[in-house]
Design brief:
Blueprint: H1 12-15, H2 18-39, E1 45-46, E2 55-56, E3 63-66, E4 72-75, E5 77-79, E6 88-89, E7 100-106, E8 109-115, E9 121-126, E10 132-133, E11 138-139
Antiparallel strand pairs: 1-3, 2-5, 3-4, 4-11, 5-10, 6-9, 7-8, 8-9
Length: 143
């Protein structure tokens, strides 16, 4: 959601300028709509096809969602695959414009997940295959 810029001149609010009041009302409506957008729960897409030996950690779904602000976010935990090989691929519309790297928790230590721009692959690049958390990863597609 974008907010349309509004202009005010010194004294507009004090004098009750109709244009300034209209601009203020427009701004307030936009902010209220933006706040409403943030309260809409995301629609999660569960990843059911995993590659390179990766699976979902027991009781943790591997899933992603696109938020109203277009950001892509992840939840879940991977396990058992080969570090450095893709776990799954995002739909083309959700690919980043350049590789995105994220520090994650992997078996209670540092891990890194890369989302590749060239093919949308989600790759546990550094860490342990005991588990790799995807929680907290978020980026804007095309960015």
């Amino acid at each position: 959601m974008s907010i349309t810029p509004v202009q005010f001149r010194t004294g507009d609010i004090q004098t009750g300028s109709p244009t300034a009041l209209q601009n203020l009302n427009t701004f307030i409506r936009q902010v209220q709509q933006g706040a409403q957008d943030l309260t809409v729960p995301p629609t999660w897409t569960e990843v059911t096809t995993l590659a390179s030996g990766w699976g979902a950690y027991p009781q943790f779904r591997v899933q992603y969602a696109q938020l109203p602000d277009t950001r892509v976010v992840f939840e879940g935990t991977l396990r058992g695959g080969t570090i450095g090989l893709p776990a799954f691929t995002l739909p083309r519309a959700l690919w980043p414009g350049q590789d995105q790297n994220f520090a994650v928790c992997s078996n209670d230590a540092f891990g890194k997940v890369t989302i590749r721009a060239v093919d949308g692959a989600v790759v546990p690049a550094v860490g342990s295959n005991v588990y790799v958390s995807l929680d907290g990863i978020g980026f804007w597609p095309g960015a």
